From TrEMBL:
Transmembrane segments: none annotated. NCBIfam families: pilM (TIGR01175). Residues 15-183 form the SHS2 domain. This is Pilus assembly protein PilM. InterPro entries: ATPase_NBD, FtsA/MreB, PilM, SHS2_FtsA. Coiled coil: none annotated. It comes from Massilia hydrophila.
C-alpha cells in the first residue's frame, strides 16, 4: 500500500500545496481565519526550464528540486510539510464494491485482490491506496470503495523532489481532484452551483495541454486531455519577434509586446482556444448521455488572457467565468490582492492541494 500518509487521508498542519506543472512550480499556504473561514497566508510561483517536466513526467529532478527550493524561500513560509499532486493520466482510479464490515486488514487484502484486475502492472510496481466512500447504492450489505493506483516510480520522483528541497511530502493527491476541491469551495453557495444536478465544465488551460473536467453535483462525470496550451502562443511570439522562449513567456504575461501583437498573434490564438473549447463540449455531448452544460469555468495560466473569456462565452452560449480559487478567503499581509486577481486562476490546483490541510 502507498506509504505517504494517504492519497485520500488526513494531514497534520501546517502544510503547503505544491503544484508542479510543465511551466513552473506554484505554492499556496492556507490558514484558519476563525469562524470556519480560511485565509490565504502566502503564495508564490517559480518558472521551470523547458524540458524539466514533460507530459507530467519529471525529466530533471535536480532542476525541479531547485525551483521548489526557490519558490519555498520566495513565499516566506516556514511549513515544511507539503501536499503534492499527480497528473490524472498517471493515476488509475476505480470505484469498487466490497462487503461491508471488513476489518482494516481484510479490506487491504480485498482491495489488492480487486486492484489486480484493473491495474496493467505488477502490484509491487505501484503505489496503491483506497478510501471507503460509504454504503453501496441499492445494497445495504455492501460498501463503495474508491481505488487509486500510480506507478511507484512516478510517486517516488515527486517525493524525491520534496526531500531534495528539504521538505516532506505527506499527501499525494490527484491534480484533477485537487482542482475539483478548490472549485467546489470557491463556488459553494452560488446560485448556479446550488441547483440540483447542475452540470459544470472546467477547462484548465496549461502550457502544453488543456484538461477538461465535467462535473455534476460536484462529482466528475467526464474527463479529457487535449494537446493545446499556452506554449503555442509563446512559440508564435518567439518566431515573430526573435525572442528567447523565456523572454517571450515573460513578455506574454506582462503584455510588453509590439502593437501588432494583439491582432497578429493573440487574436488567432484566442480563436484557436475557443475552437478547442467548443469542440471539447461537442465531443462531450456526442460521447455521453448528457445534452447540456449549465456553467463553464476557465483556469490555468492562460485563463486571464484578455478577450478569451468573452470569446468562449459568446461561442458556447454558456455562462462562463474565470475561476477565483481564493474567493471568500481572508488575505494575509504578504498577499497582493491586485496581482492575485490577475494570477489567481493559475493557482487552482495548488489551492486544492493546500486545502488538504483541512481534510
Amino acid at each position: 500500500m502507498i506509504n505517504l500518509g494517504s492519497l485520500f487521508g488526513k494531514s497534520n498542519p501546517p502544510m503547503v500545496g505544491l503544484d508542479i506543472s510543465t511551466s513552473g512550480v506554484r505554492l499556496v499556504e492556507l490558514g484558519e481565519a476563525g469562524k470556519g473561514e480560511l485565509r490565504l497566508e502566502r503564495y508564490a510561483t517559480e518558472p521551470l526550464p523547458r524540458g524539466a517536466v514533460v507530459d507530467g513526467n519529471i525529466e530533471n529532478i535536480e532542476q525541479v528540486s531547485e525551483a521548489v527550493r526557490r519558490v519555498w524561500k520566495k513565499s516566506g513560509t516556514r511549513a515544511r510539510h507539503v501536499a503534492l499532486g499527480m497528473p490524472p493520466a498517471a493515476v488509475i482510479t476505480k470505484k469498487i464494491i466490497l462487503p461491508a464490515g471488513l476489518s482494516e486488514d481484510q479490506l487491504e487484502v480485498q482491495v489488492e485482490s480487486e486492484a489486480s484486475q484493473y491495474i496493467p502492472f505488477a502490484l509491487d510496481e505501484v503505489s496503491l491506496d483506497f478510501d471507503v466512500i460509504g454504503q453501496a447504492p441499492h445494497a445495504q450489505e455492501d460498501m463503495e470503495v474508491m481505488l487509486a493506483a500510480a506507478r511507484r516510480e512516478k510517486v517516488e520522483d515527486r517525493v524525491a523532489i520534496a526531500e531534495a528541497a528539504g521538505l516532506t511530502a505527506i499527501v499525494m493527491d490527484i491534480e484533477s481532484y485537487a482542482a475539483r476541491a478548490a472549485l467546489d469551495r470557491a463556488t459553494r453557495g452560488r446560485a448556479g452551483i446550488a441547483k440540483p444536478e447542475q452540470i459544470v465544465a472546467l477547462f484548465q488551460i496549461g502550457a502544453q495541454s488543456t484538461h477538461v473536467s465535467v462535473l455534476q453535483d460536484g462529482e466528475t462525470i467526464y474527463e479529457r486531455e487535449q494537446p493545446f496550451g499556452g506554449n503555442q502562443l509563446t512559440q508564435d511570439i518567439v518566431r515573430a519577434y526573435g525572442l528567447s522562449f523565456e523572454e517571450a513567456e515573460t513578455r506574454k504575461k506582462s503584455g510588453d509586446l509590439p502593437e501588432n501583437y494583439r491582432a497578429d498573434l493573440l487574436a488567432p490564438f484566442l480563436e484557436s482556444a475557443a475552437l478547442e473549447v467548443t469542440r471539447a463540449i461537442q465531443f462531450f455531448f456526442t460521447s455521453t448521455p448528457y445534452t447540456r452544460i449549465d456553467e463553464l469555468y476557465l483556469a490555468g495560466g492562460c485563463a486571464a488572457l484578455p478577450g478569451l473569456l468573452e470569446l468562449i462565452g459568446s461561442r458556447t452560449r454558456i455562462p462562463s467565468s474565470i475561476v477565483a480559487p481564493f474567493e471568500g478567503m481572508a488575505f494575509g499581509a504578504p498577499v497582493r490582492e491586485q496581482q492575485l486577481r490577475q494570477e489567481g486562476a493559475a493557482y487552482l490546483v495548488a489551492c486544492g492541494l493546500a486545502l488538504r490541510r483541512f481534510a
